[in-house]
Structures are given as C-alpha cells and as structure tokens.
## 1
Amino acid sequence: MMDESQIVKLAFEGVIKAAGGKLTEAAIEKAKQLWQKFRAKFAGNQMVEDAMNDAEKAQSMEKDDEDLLVSSLKHAMKNDRQFAEEIQNLARQINQEINSNSQNSNTFNSKARDNVNFFNNQGTNIEQTIDFSRGKTEKK
C-alpha cells in the first residue's frame, strides 16, 4: 500500500507530465483521474484548492503545499473508506503501469558489429572488429 505522500506525487507528476519518462500515457491518464478526485474531494476547501492551483501553475509543488495536500489526503482517506479505496486502487494501477513499462523498457536485444581502426603511436593501423552482441573483440 502506498502512503499519501507517494500518492500525491504520482498524481501531480501525471498532471504536469514531468515524471522523467517513467509514466506511460495510460499512467498519465490515471494520474490525472487521481488529481481530479483530489479536486472533487477538496472542492470548497480554499487552502487545498489554492495549493493545487499554485502547483499546477508553477508546474512544481512547494513543500508547504505538498504537506497540506498530503495531510488533507490522509485525513480524508481516514474518514472516508470508499474514497480511500478509490485512491489506493488508482495509485496501484499507476504503479503497475510504471512497473510494467520499466520491465518492457529493460528488454533490449542488439546485434551489432563494427570495424574500428586504431593507430598505435608508430602509425601502424590496428583494425578491430567489435561484435557487440557477443561482447567479443577480434584483432586483425
């Protein structure tokens, strides 16, 4: 189970699309849904609304604004079980999407071969073939 601070960060990263590439389009959409659930839950709470608006406008979240949102989320999740389940479910889906994307991006197969010419300090040409797929170097 993710804590409220992690949930707030996930939601905000999706809104500003500044997650450094770790969020897929599907995860970004879910993070936006999460942020909108925050907006709906805290509608009428001027301090939280202002903090969210400021963060969106600046595309970064000040520590005070983040702390306010985290504590408000903590309180809301403690007092509204259905809201807490919805938030945790969305956060879990985003996290699964991130993990799925990172596993897919780590699979990389390459078959490459290149000839490289080196010259030693006497001007003699030393040709090497580098087979990147096997990690071998052959001198000719």
Note: Residues 105-118 have pLDDT under 50 and may be disordered.
## 2
Amino acid sequence: MSNICPKSEKCPIFQGGVLKRASSEQIYRNLYCNAGKIKYEKCMRFIVSEKVGKPAPISVLPNSTKSLDDIISSMS
C-alpha cells in the first residue's frame, strides 16, 4: 500500500503552483500527502472530496479550520 494520498494526482496542493511559496506546498505534501493513510485522511481537501465525490475547491487547504458543512455549503 502506498503512503501517498490516492487523490494526489488531481490535487492542486500536491501538484504545486497554487500557493505563493513552493516551500509551503512542500510542507503540506510532507505533513499530509506523503505521510500515509492516517495523515492524508485528516486532510480537509481529502475529507471534502470523499464527502462530495468531486475535488475540493482550490481555496481549501489541508489544515483548513472551516467546518466540513461550511465548506460544502460554500460549494453550492
């Protein structure tokens, strides 16, 4: 089993170029994307995507403090 998030292929944070600092994206990749199932399942982008069946909005960061309900309602 891979330690990499199964959603990484389509995730703008994983792919890079979204945040102003590439080092910030690398930190997120290290903390969430490449850190195994226990970590990527805590990523808010992963959680939103699993719940709604499509990618999370680009504005949602892995450590977003917005609630799942707030994020989903803002997607409508």
Note: Residues 22-33 form the longest helix (12 residues).
## 3
Amino acid sequence: MENALVNPYSPQSKIAAYRSVSAHGAVADTHPHALVLTLLDAALERMNAARACIEKGETRRKAGLLHSAVILVAELRGSLNMEKGGPLAVNLSQLYDYMSRRLIHANLNNDSAAVTEVLSLLSEIRGAWAAIGPAVRQSAPQAASAA
C-alpha cells in the first residue's frame, strides 16, 4: 500500500505535474465549441464501453465508466448559458438531467437498453453540435471585434 503513495520529489510526480499543466494549457487555448464537442465524445465513448461491459458482466469497470459518463453529462449541463440560451438551454438542461437519471438506472440495473437510449439522445445532440461548428467558429472573431 505504501508504494501507491508518490513522493512529491519523485520523477513521476514531476511528469504528472507537467502533464497536468500541459493539459490545462491546451484546454485554455481551445475554442469553447471544441471543448463541448470533446465532452460529448468522451461521454459517448464511456457509454459505449460501459454497454460492452454490461454484456461481458464486467460490473466494476461498467460502474466506473457510467459514473464518469454521468459526470461528463453534468459538465455539459453546467456549461449551458441559461440566460442567453432561452428555451433551448432549458430543454437541454432537462434532457441532460433525464440522461443522468437513465445512466444511474443503467448502472444500478445493468440495463444496456437504458445506455443505448442515452447514447442515441446524446449522439443526436453531438451531430447537431458538430454541424453548427463552422458557423460558430466564423462568428467568434466578429463577436470579439464587436466587443
């Protein structure tokens, strides 16, 4: 158990710190549209893997993957701008809440159909989000210059 602790002066901790700073720097320089797309892709990836785990009976791994997917969906929900987004943001917030509840249900009941349902819903959102990408990225410089 003692080997699990990392000495703060060990080379491994310095590498981990470098990776963390590098990752945070990359995120800071990324367009917000691309960040949301990354969250969507990560959630979909984990759900697909969790569905496979349900089919294989890998309960522990499934639980971790679905937990991670719920956190990612919560991040998506938290990224909504409720003031500027209007009814669309409200509807997405409610849909993300529904997805989270379905994923928790899937985790508790090993319900691959619930995971498939959420995969379908989130894939639709991802497709729409990807489709608006070029327009959002072209309008960003204009919005910055107008501000």
Note: The helical segments are 11-28, 32-56, 59-78, 82-109, 112-146.
